[in-house]
Amino acid sequence: MNKFSLFTAIIMTVLVTSYSAHSEAKPDQYNEHRFAHYDGKHRGEMKTKRIMRHLSLLDLTDHQREKIESVIKNAVGAAKPKREEMKRLHAQLKELKKSGKIDEQAIRALASEIASHKSDLFIMHLNKRKEVAALLTPEQLVRLERIKAARREKH
């Protein structure tokens, strides 16, 4: 057996072995592992930590940090019922889709309700950003804009 055939045989063995191991795994095994830390219950806490980590670049005072954390926690708490309602509406939409018949009126009504909740959440988000910006000094706001610009250029 020449070197090329040996190399090809080894590569094929590795590919077949990896494929068979992959096909035996549950379809969502990767996602379950990848998102095991994210169960939805801690979404607000994770968001607050992420936002505070980004704002830590602004050299916040203790008072600013406390106020901003409060604003973010209140906003996350206020958004939670809207998100839960959207989740319920999406489930209804999914059931409607599974039913097999197309009820255009029901689909439009659910889509309209979901859009309304999304709009409300977007406005809540903008209000939260406005409240946070009101707690920052002019120098911190300039620095925040520079950070945002740098992140936009990076992505």
Characterise this structure.
There is one protein chain. With 155 residues, the chain is mainly alpha-helical. It folds into 2 domains: 36 residues; 112 residues, Four Helix Bundle (Hemerythrin (Met), subunit A). Helix content is 81%, strand content 0%. It is built from 6 helices and no strands. The chain is flat.
Q: Could you give a short description of this structure?
A:
The chain has 155 residues and is an all-alpha fold. It is built from 6 helices and no strands.
Give the topology, please.
Layout: H1 3-24, H2 29-34, H3 43-55, H4 62-98, H5 104-134, H6 138-154
Q: Give the helix tally.
A: 6
> Regions with pLDDT < 50 over 5+ consecutive residues?
27-38
**Strand count:** 0
* Percent in strands: under 5%
Task: List its traits.
155 residues; mainly alpha; Four Helix Bundle (Hemerythrin (Met), subunit A); 2 domains; 81% helix
